[in-house]
Amino acid sequence: MAFSERFLDELISRSDIVDVVGGYVQLTKKSGSNLFGLCPFHSEKTPSFSVSQDKQIYHCFGCGKGGSSINFIMEMENLSFPEAVAFLAKKYGMEVPDDSPDEYKGKRTRMLQLNKDAARFFYDNLKKPVGGSAVEYIAKRGISKELVVRFGLGAAPDSWNSLYDAMKSRGYSAEEMLDAGLIKKGRNGGFYDTFRNRLVFPVIDVRGSVIGFSGRILGDGEPKYLNSPDTVVFKKSKNLFGLNLAKKSKMGMIILVEGNIDVVSLHQAGIDCAVASLGTSLTPDQARLISRYTDNAVICYDSDNAGVKAAQRAIDILEKTGLTVKVLQVPGAKDPDEFIREKGPDAFKLLLERSENHIEYRIMAIRKKFDLDINEDRLAFLNEATELLSTLPNAIEREIYGSRVAELSGVTPEAVAAEVKKAYRKRVKAEKTKFERNSVRPNVTAQPMDKSLRYENVGSAAAEEGVIRLLLLDPSLISKTRELSRSDFTSDYLGRAFEEIGKRLSAGGSVSIPVLSESLSAEEIGSLTGIVQKPEAMGNYEQAMGDYINKIKTEKLKKDLNAAALRYRETKGYGDKYGK
C-alpha cells in the first residue's frame, strides 16, 4: 500500500465529493439524496452525472465514468493517482507523508522539470547568435517582446544536438529526454534533437506547467509545424495551445484558431481569448476543456476547403458540450494573422462582433455547393439543408432557419417545414428503435460500458459483480469467500479487484472505491462504481453471497466440462464430425 490507510481515509473525509466535483460541475438536486449535473467527461444535454454524498462517489449513467474525489481529479486534471492525492492534500491543507510513493516525486515530476529547463534553453537562445533566424522571423511577423515573454517563445538552433548536450550537462539522461520527446535515436545508436531550426512555442497547461513543445520551421522543410509526441505529461488531444492565458480573459468567449501564430497575433491585438489545437482536429476532450472556462465558442479557421471542413466538424463537437457556437470568417485573408497584419486589430474586432450563428454558417456552406437556378441543384440543396435542420433539437430554431432555407431556395416556408418535420420524425424514430433494440439484449445491457472490459461469460460475471458489491457493502463477508480465488473469476479486472480486497482486509485495512483506485485503472474504477450503484437485496447478505459463489462455481464447472469434452473429441478424431 503506497499511501497509508490512515492518510487516505483522512484525505477522503476532508475532500468531500460534492465540494470537489462542484468546483467543475454545476450540481442540482434531482432525486433522492443524489445530486446531478451535466457530465464533464462526455457531451450531453440531459444530466446523467450523479454524485452521492453518502457514498462519496460519482457515477455517470451515460458514459460509465465513476469513482471517488481522487478519481475525479485524476480525470479532470490528467494526473496520476499520487499526483491527484497531492493535489487534494494541498487544496485541503494536508501534508503528504514522507513515505508517499516514489512515483509522486518520480517520472512525471522529473519530466515537467526537464521541459521547464528545455523551455528556458530555447528562450535563452533568442539572445544568442544561434537564435538569429528565430529573432528575424519574430520581427517579420511583428511579434512584440512582451508577447515573446508572455508565451515563452524560443529558438531551436540549426544543430543536431545542442539541446541534448545542454540537458545532458544538467544531469538528464538520454532516456529521460527520449521519453519527453525532446530527442530521437539515430540509426547509428546516437541521439539527435527533435526540434532543429525552429521557432519554439512551449505548450503550457492550465496549471502553468510546460508539458510539451510546438516548433515552426524557419526555413525550407517539412513538416511546417512539429509537435511533441504524447508523453506521460502531454496528450495532444486533451490540451490547447494558449489556454493557460485565454482562461483568464474577460471577453466572455474563447476563439478557436488553427495555428500558434494566429493565437499569438490575436493576443497581441488585445484579443486574449484565442487558443489552437496542437496538430490535430478538435477533439471532444478539447471541447469539454473549453466548456470549463466559457459558455461561448467562436470558430475562426482558415478560409480554404480544409478550414471549412474542419469548422464543420468542430461545430458538431462544440455544440454537444452545450456551448453557444459562432463562426467568424475572415474575408480577403487566409487566416486571422494575415487579416490583422493587413487591416489591423479594430477591423478584426468588428468582424468578431458580426460573427454568425453556426447554423447560418452551415446553411450558407451548403448553399455554395449548388446553383439554385438549376432545379436539380435546388432540390439537392433543399434535401441537404432540411437534413441539417432535422438535427436541431429546438423546434423554434427549426422553424426560423427553415424560413431562411425557404427564402434562399424560393419555395414556401410551409413546404420546407413539412420536409424538416418528416426528417426529424424519421431521425427520432431511428434513435428510439436503436435504443429499444439494445435495451432488450441482455448481453449488451449486462456488459460494462467500457469495451475494454467486456465479459466473456455474462452469467458468471453478474455473480462476480455481486461478490464484489457485497464485499464493499459488508467487508466482514470476506470470511465467506475462502473457497473462491481469483482464478474462478471469468472477468480479469473483477478477479484482480477481489484479490486486492482480500489483501487489504487480511492486512487489517479497509476497502472502498477510493483505496482501490490506487491499484485499478480509471476504466475499471468507473465500472466498479457502477456495480456498487446497482441495487442489492437487503436482508440476508450471507445467503446472497453464497448464491453468487455457487453461480461462479457452476459456470466454472460448465466451462471445465466443455473443455474436457472438446479434448476427448479431438483425441478420438471426432473433429470433422463436430465441425472442427
Global geometry: globular
Strand content: 5-15%
The largest beta-sheet arranges its strands as 1-2-3-4-5
**End-to-end distance, in Å?**
48 Å
Helix content: 40-55%
Low-confidence stretches: 438-442
Tally of contiguous helical segments:
25
* DSSP strand count: 16
Secondary-structure content class: alpha+beta
Mind describing the biggest β-sheet? 5 strands, antiparallel
Whole-number radius of gyration?
29 Å
Mean pLDDT, all residues: 88
Q: How is this structure best described in words?
A:
Helix content is 49%, strand content 11%. The strands form four sheets. A five-stranded antiparallel sheet has the order 1-2-3-4-5. A five-stranded mixed sheet has the order 13-12-14-15-16. A four-stranded antiparallel sheet has the order 6-9-10-11. A hairpin with a 2-residue loop joins strand 1 and strand 2. The protein starts with a helix and ends in a 9-residue tail after the last helix.
